[in-house]
Structures are given as structure tokens and as C-alpha cells.
Specification:
317 residues, alpha/beta, Nucleotidyltransferase, domain 5, 2 domains, 5-stranded mixed β-sheet, 12 strands, 20% strand
Amino acid sequence: MHTDLVAALDIGGTKIAGALVDREGRILARAQRPTPAREDGDTVMAAVGAVIGDLAASPLWERAGAVGIGSAGPVDASAGTVSPVNVPGWRDYPLVAQVRDAAGGLPVALIGDGVAITAAEHWQGAARGHDNALCMVVSTGVGGGLVLGGRLHPGPTGNAGHIGHISVDLDGDPCPCGARGCVERIASGPNIARRALENGWRPGPDGDTSAAAVAAAARAGDPVAVASFERAARALAAGIAATATLVEIDIAVIGGGVGKAGEVLFTPLRKALTEFATLSFVRRLAVVPARTGTDAGLVGAAAAALMGRTDAAVAGV
């Protein structure tokens, strides 16, 4: 049987999603389990194994030639291990070896979730056709990944492009990572909401204090909500400009829940970028919303598996 498909796993703190994906990025079969994030490592792996088992029950499984994993991080692709912040039972957990065993010995490629979404956006989404791109996930955290010279650039451990932990405020709040003034500490959804609440914004009758509720208030003209999104936009702009100055990207793609806020985020972000991206070679930098949606992690994990098998860019990955 021709192995023209790959299996993909998208592992996060809430759910473990799996799919069988073809070379055009189409999802042909799916499986999913909740992540038992508060349980021990073997219990979490059992949920991963159950997803793989569901995929293996498909008649398409015999056409799968490799497995790609996009995991919450940090990951260490060189060691095949993961230590997701939101899955405390996994610390230096040998995920690649465990998945290889569960998948009957298929080759396994591991990348971080930010890099996975970057792979998806370059293969199928807003960064398609761009040789040098930064793709970002702005949601509960802020992650990202890079495409340089037309190829995904995960770095030796699979974490390159992790823009959320660039410091953009030397005297800023301490970040859980140990540094100060990180992009994530200012621009993630929970931190946008925290800043708005600290400055006097109050939720509506439903009591919703999410970043989406702050975005709705900002669209309605609430000045505190607007200011919180403007602060986030400036932090993102500073991080994007720093990245562009270092490696000459020509597009920044923003996905994740906060990325869905629309012009409440993108209008002040593009304005702030003109203040930070001032050198001639970064002035033409485009900032656009992501296109691949909720399947981005799976599509990107599939891209990693395809690249691992061919050792070459696949379909523009």
C-alpha cells in the first residue's frame, strides 16, 4: 500500500486532536480526547494513545507513513521530549518514543505548537508564497514560529520564533518565564483582560471578563478597553519589529483568540508598527490575520511529518 498520508497530533492543555492528512493538507479522518492535564504523565499519554488508536482503526491508517506532533511547549525536538507548561505531569517526557511505539514504529516528527501553526500558515494560509515570515498565536499565551528562506525554521529544539518571550519593557511586570516585560505578559488574552480590569473596566451583566469581552467593549468605544488593546498592540508591534530587524521577514501573521479581535487589535498594531519598524528594510512589513483556523495545529503537524519524510519543502512548506 502506498504511504501517501501522514498522521498528525495537536496536543494542548485542553484537548488532544488527531487526524490523517494527505499531501494537499486535507484532513481525511479525525479523533479527539480531552487532555487530562492535571493527571500524571502516563495518564496523559494514555489519552494520546487513545487518539492514535482511534486513527489506527480507520481503514486509511495503513496509508500513513509518518506521524507529526505539534505540542504545547517547551518542546525539545533534538531529545524528543516535551515539558508543556499547562501539562505538569509531562516534564522532559519522552513523547516521540512513546508515540512511535503507539503508532507501530512509524517515524515521528516533533515541533512546538507555535511552529506548527507557522507551518500551516505557510503551507495553506496567509503566509503562503512568502519566503520570510513570522507567524504568531496570540491567545492564552503568545507563541510563534519563523519561515526563513522559504523553509520552516524550528531551530535545534523546535522553539525558534517564540516571540512571546521577547522583552519589550525593561522595567515591566515579572513574567512567569522569569524575565520582565515579555510580549506575552502584555499581549496575551488574560493579560489584556487583567490590565483592563485593573484600570477600571467592568464586565457587562453576564460577568464575562475574557479578552473577547474586552474586545467587544473596545468596539463599543469603552476607553479603558481600547487602551488595553492599544497597549497589547504596542507590545506586539515592538516584538514583530525586533524580529523583522533581525531576520528580514516581510509578513507577520497573527492567529489565536486575540487575533480574532479584528480591527480593535490590527488598527493600533499597524499604527504602532510604523513607530517601531523604522529602518528601510522593515518598513514594508505586512501584518495580516491567520487563515487556517482551528485545524492549524493539525495541518502544521502534518507538514512537519511530510518534511521529515522527504527532507525537503513539501508543497511550499
